[in-house]
Amino acid sequence: MERTSRFSAALIFVAPLAVLVVLWAVLVPALGVRPQIFPSVAAVGRAGIDSILDGSLLRHVAASVSRVAIGTVLAVLVAVPLGILMGVSRGVSAFVTPLMRFFSVLAGIAWIPIATLWFGYGFGAIVFVIFNAVFFVVAYNTLLGVSTIPMTLRHAAASLGAGRRSMLTDVLLPGALPNIVTGIRTGLGFAWRGLIAAEMIATDVGLGYMLFVARDFYQTEVIVLGMIVIGTLWLLIDRLLLVPLERATIERWGLVSP
Amino acid sequence: MKSLSLKNLAKTYFDAYKGEHVTAIRDVSLEVPAGEFVSIVGPSGCGKSTILNMVAGFIPHSGGDILVGGEAVKGPGPDRGVVFQSFALFPWKTVLDNVGFGPKMRGVPKAERDAIAREYLALAGLSHAADRYPNELSGGMQQRVGVVRALANQPDVLLMDEPFASVDAQTRMTLQDELSRIWEERRPTVVFITHDVPEAVFLANRVVVLSKGKVLAEVDVPISRPRVWDRLVADDQFKDLSNQVLALVRSA
Predict the structure, then answer these.
(1) Which domains can be identified in chain B, with CATH numbers?
(2) Residue A173 lies in a domain
(3) Is the pLDDT of residue B101 over 80?
(4) Does A161 touch chain B if contact means CB atoms closer than 8 Å?
């Protein structure tokens, strides 16, 4: 039962994408579109197979994914403690909130120029941009999560003997976790977009770079291949990693009805 | 189990909305000997929940003393277990881990605190629910867990803040029967806040009627135990005492 409904849900999700591919396969030859403007399905397929065989696709994907992973992990490690601190201390919150408001607008690609000056072209600058994209959303959501924990839960923990440390590990962190996960999901969405932009400017490997270089050679099939890979990777990360994580926390604990 | 004594307890606070100081508790003195069950009743706004929150250490008191076993209370602590109207179960912990939370805070190893939690869950007929999450339980079941969680930490005094006010009438009577039975078995010192007069009389050894931040009257409840609704519902002594307390509350 569960399995069939999941399968049909996946089918419903994929169907519009399949329609798009069919339209593409029909329209490009029917309208006689030149390959310099838009590639045929077959050309993109060949480009995909070629880039898999020569290992270049894997190299670009690995570079992009590892940058996002490292930038995100670093951002979460700094943002969660800061968010909790803001959630429990009015002073810290009052001081940090205006800074957060200001910098959250700039988060992401606005940092690319200065990041390349600080870190040079490559890994450091891009990870910095990712960090920025994820950091503010996660910090803000952590703060939100902590401040929405009912006071009675903190009272209950205190009257059961919880000290500062247990209050953090047993109440504040798990209580804020659903919001933290939501923050990571949103932040990763920003990060993924920021990544492609940053890679077009600041590196010589990665999916963004792959798109950008292909343009110089009118390789529309490589550009479209890259776009498909970028979109598909994000869908996979979101569906296979983030959505289940969100479900495991939010629905399990009855914070929203399943 | 220890005694609780309130000496000339007072609470004033600044109401920012009204722009003036408000006296919530004027001058309350109350002795609860170890192992006694005391109910505090009174109309809304009489200050009964304020007293409980001060005894629990959630809010500071402005005057007088709160002593548990002769020791002054400073902030919340495991010597005073609290049962909340809103249950206040940790939604991210299973029932077993909720009940084992107090022992965990005391540093009791996992296997041992699970055994403690299971023993107390059995006391309330909740053994089958040990591995469920709070949101999977009915309100009545959740509050059973709330009571058992407080008891499992073996507090000196158990503070209950209108614990059965948010469950349906049917379930409430069952919970009252069960609490009465558990109290008779374990004899904890209990302060029970409620606005439900029959509930106060049914459970307590003594009912304190509060009015405008002061103790209006104290009524002893010498009804024999065990107490169950099946018997008390038609008991003359119970009816007389309930009417007596109700008259006091209405005059308050």
Answers:
(1) 4-79+155-251 (3.40.50.300), 91-154 (no CATH)
(2) yes
(3) yes
(4) yes
